[in-house]
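stage 2 :: seqdesign
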């Protein structure tokens, strides 16, 4: 789960945990709070967080390898990573604009060493969550 340290991403992690899912939380921020909340909801299923920059393909690949080694194969990948600046785009400097674009668009690019795996965007097993994110329905 990318973008899982707070907000919508954290909420999605918690709601997956309510179904008993194993949760791997990725974010460029610390994910400790998310994992603590997940462990309260997941009925004992494994959960672990990684602090990783989704725009750094080598770091992402290493983190995915760790997930598969420590938690098993990945069935569902969710990209909820995104950043925004507080100023209108036309007022923003290029460095901040580029950082936002790399995070919001680039963090879902294929990992060059494994083109079949996209960072937090490929789904091997799909679940549709209802509007309240309370119950997964196999599709």
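stage 2 :: out
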């Amino acid at each position: 789960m990318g973008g899982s340290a707070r907000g919508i991403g954290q909420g999605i992690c918690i709601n997956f945990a309510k179904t008993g899912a194993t949760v791997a939380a990725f974010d460029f921020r610390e994910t400790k709070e998310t994992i603590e909340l997940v462990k309260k909801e997941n009925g004992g299923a494994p959960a672990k967080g990684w602090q990783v920059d989704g725009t750094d393909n080598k770091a992402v690949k290493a983190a995915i390898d760790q997930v598969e080694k420590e938690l098993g194969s990945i069935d569902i990948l969710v990209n909820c990573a995104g950043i925004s600046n507080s100023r209108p785009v036309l007022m923003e400097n290029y460095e901040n604009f580029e950082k936002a674009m790399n995070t919001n668009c680039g963090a879902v690019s294929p990992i060059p060493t494994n083109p079949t795996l996209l960072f937090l965007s490929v789904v091997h097993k799909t679940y549709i969550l209802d509007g309240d994110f309370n119950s997964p329905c196999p599709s």
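stage 3 :: structure notes
- Confidence is low (pLDDT under 50) at residues 109-139.
- The domain at 7-138 is CATH 3.40.50.720 (Rossmann fold).
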